[in-house]
Amino acid sequence: MFKSLLKAFSSSKSDSLPLADLSSLSTDMHSHLIPGIDDGAKTIEESIELIRTLHGLGYTKLITTPHIMSDYFRNTPEIIYKGLEEVRAALIENNIPVQISAAAEYYIDDGFMRKLEEEKLMTFGDNYLLVEVSYINPPDNVRDILFRAQVLGYRPILAHPERYPFWYRTIEEYQKFYDMGVLLQLNLNSLSGYYGLDAKRVAEKLIDLQIISALGTDLHHSKHGEFLQRTVNEKYLQKILEQPLINREL
Predict the structure, then answer these.
(1) How many domains does the chain have?
(2) What percentage of the chain reaches a pLDDT higher than 70?
(3) Cβ atoms within 10 Å of 142's Cβ, excluding its own
(4) pLDDT-derived band of residue 138, with 50, 70 and 90 as boundaries?
């Protein structure tokens, strides 16, 4: 079944375009692989299958990033690290040669500022802090919040900016984030149209502007994994892989 899906996804383009080599990235820095704590993997078996998919695409290191939201996914470092150890043990048991660590994807809501001021937030690499905002409308003071994070020593990364429709008509907004030192992380599946044609168009524009600093799979479930097989045929993936990306330093 999996091979037939891969063949169907790639047949229309494979004759004209080479497959992008994701092993050149080495590290995926955005995924939801710890079972049962957010809207990602539900069971440890599903976690392992998703990790097998990523390893098959060339990844050797994963930084999984469960959601932390004040009103919905009330994860804590203790919950996340406990789940991480379960996944690590399963990888050893299944002889899958992938390193995995954990940070978090923080939702900028009313509780985020309290966490920012009072807690040590979960980061990765050079104190990178992965954040997201509402898909309906951003916080009015989102830049002030991210600047405060920078003052406190964090290096904010805005997750999947191409998925926020309120900025689609104002591409300059993305440039403003980049100019203030906020890194932008693109979801790979945006390039294959998984999130819609508008997200694909904006993703390609951001790549053309050369303001994307990181790539993530944002892998939640098997359907995401199936679409990643299509994405490796996209010419814009090859284009972004030729640009500087922090994945290679993690």
Answers:
(1) 1
(2) 92
(3) 17
(4) confident
